Amino acid sequence: AVDFPGLHNKLRTEYGPASVRPHEVASVLQDIQRDLEDYEAEIYHLERLRQEKQRLEQYAAQMRSLFSPIRKVPDEIICHIFDDCCDMNSFRVVGLTRRLPTPMSQALRSKPAMVISSVCSRWRRNALSMPVIWSRISLLWNMHLTEEYCEREHTEVFFPLSNFLDLSQQCPMTVNLEVEGWPFATPAVLHPVFERLFLQAVRWQNFSFRCVEYTIQELLDFAGISPAAFPVLSELCVTYVDENDLIPFLDTAPKLQSLSLGDNLDCMPQGFKYYLQLSHLDFCPDQAEIQNLFDKCPNLVSLRVPESWHLPNAVGSMTITCSSRLETLIIRHGHWWNDVSDAIFPLLRLPSLKTLRLEKSQRRVHNEGIDGKPWNNFEPFKVFVHRSTFQLTTFSMQQLTISDANLVYILFHLPTLQDLTIDDSGISPKCSPISSEFIESLHGYRTSSLRPSKAVNLPRLRSLRLLNVAATTFSDHLVVDMVQSRWIPAKIHDVGTSTLEADCLRVFTMTFPNRSESEAGGVYSSLAPIERDGMMVVIGLGRGSKQ
User: Fold this and answer.
1) 39: Cβ contacts below 8 Å, ≥ 6 apart
2) Which residues does UniProt call coiled coil (predicted)?
3) pLDDT digits (tens, 9 = 90+) for 192-233
4) For the whole prediction, is pTM greater than 0.85?
5) Which of 237, 273, 347, 386 could form a disulfide with 208 if both were Cys (CB 3.0 to 4.6 A apart)?
6) What residue spans define the domains of the chain?
């Protein structure tokens, strides 16, 4: 036994040398040493037990992961998920000698194919068996003439891209190429990244190109690939520098179906062989081009054009052109040449149209929503809607100043509409069409000041998205009441009976970037039961927040 009090008493007492019995002290110390060794052995044994316990816990956790639902998913479905997730692998090259280090997580996030192939051996095996997810490449090149060519640093750029090209095997490629600087290693030699990429031109299926200083033909010449061939190219998007940008594609892309020229003001290229087979066209036409468009491109099903043709001094009579095949029309509004006398709507009749989008132009220079200027092409647009008598199912408008009364008028003449999206970005509250009166006009059975008729406005509406509403206050109870009035579950599966003319609303989204949850007062929480029953409801209050 350990006797600390007795030992302390002896240590405090003036014992002489004769009073100490060495053999007794030595015996006690030997016993203590043996006990310490025994304790050390026990501690070591317990430590081993603790480590064994941790190993068993880790083993059990890994064993339980065998029950994970993802392991039951067949490889075929896993591959479909990978295909959806890996839409584009982005490479961004800036001035290498003065760039800041890119965090590994950020670098990987822009290359989803690399991310999923690093999770586990099964995912890697599936990813490596799918060349298509490695074949979608976006390259933003922002090098400048003053940058010195460093072979080691440029190899760091070249290797990952080259690796993606190797893993894509012979799969048709999607390539987005944006060159903002100097694409050469030396004044006479193209950078190896471009040489390797252009060698794959025969595999380009979707190609997008934007460069301020050089045409694609010039870069192909520097790469020693001229004349080039694009046997599988089906989608081409080129931002013009001049008319030479399309020279490489005039007669070398026999499968081309989609041509996008964006906001370029040049006329359609002469000598282009593939107008007859185009199904999508995006360009800025003049009056003659829009009037002859469907004779030149009779198979168009999708068209994207500005709201006004860009040559106001064009002469000749204005004749209406008609297409019975066009299903999607995208109108870019707000161009600097926009004038009501040059509106494109009086030239069109599109009876088969299913989708209509009014989106802001990237070249927009005047802000109707800020200065209160209304959309000056509303009257031509209204006549176009009446003339075409189409059965529209999808309609969206972005940053367009139009009164709530005019919007309700247009929607009343679109009874087949199923999907409506209104984006108020950049619109001041006083110019926004998303008002309390507009919300009331969408009620499932009640009349309003903008809808005196008992007929339901948009009876087939299934999805309603009201985005970036600029208002700082709103009649939230009217929104809740309208959504509840259009939630008719019996209409989803045609079970039960309902005397209401409206279809069941399945999706509702409304975002207020300038309001907080406290300002809404929790009114929208009353929509929670509807959401539990099946409607997808998203209410955004404040930037990035949801309720």
Assistant:
1) none
2) 29-66
3) 888 889 999 999 999 999 987 888 888 888 888 877 899 999
4) no
5) 237
6) 4-67, 71-256, 391-547
